[in-house]
Amino acid sequence: MATMVVIKCPETDREVATGIITDVKRFSRLGDGHAATHCPHCDQQHHWSRRDAFLSVTFKAAKRK
Fold this sequence. Notes:
This protein is mostly beta strands. The chain has one domain (3-56). The protein has 1 helix and 5 strands, in the order E-E-H-E-E-E. It has one helix at residues 24-28, and strands spanning 3-8, 15-22, 34-38, 45-49, 54-56. The model has no long low-confidence stretch (mean pLDDT 88).
């Protein structure tokens, strides 16, 4: 099942979708690199790694065509 990789905004503590869609198996294989995501809640860039993120079924993953 494809789900959205999500982080928490450190300013508002709200969930932020990263735009990355994956499944549990692939998520567990992500490296320790860092990424940045724009936060719509506080209008800042948040830098994160896999350790900061989690998978959420709350954010519906759009099927790729």
